[in-house]
């Protein structure tokens, strides 16, 4: 017995705008965020997940086709679905993000001159808040 291939796809809920200007703005922003997410995969100083989630949010408001493509994407689909359904983040991603923030902040403390160390403290505080928020989210 064969299953219909369409049954494997997740059908996302979209909230498309009626305004063509708003839709094109969100489509454009979605592609910008998606490209930034891809760049984030290659550069250790730039995150991937927030940009992919922002792209999904923009496309949910503008393009069913792009949103459907991203939600069923081989690599990003599961993470976007987990976020949209339960606001959940994988446990390993929480740890990875926290470790990367700690390394980046430590490097700032070592690289900045003494008169600019206050910038590193602000970044450290922001990273701490982000880590606390991350670990309060459900695990995917």
From TrEMBL:
Database matches in PANTHER family: INNER MEMBRANE PROTEIN YBAN
Localization (cell): Cell inner membrane
Organism: Psychrobacter coccoides
Alphabetic keyword roster: Cell inner membrane, Cell membrane, Membrane, Transmembrane, Transmembrane helix
Keyword DNA-binding: no
Protein name: Inner membrane protein
Pfam families registered for this protein in UniProt: DUF454
Keyword Transmembrane helix: yes
Domain of life: Bacteria
Transmembrane portions of the chain: 21-43, 116-137
InterPro entries: DUF454 (IPR007401)
Major subcellular location class: membrane
Membrane topology qualifier: Multi-pass membrane protein
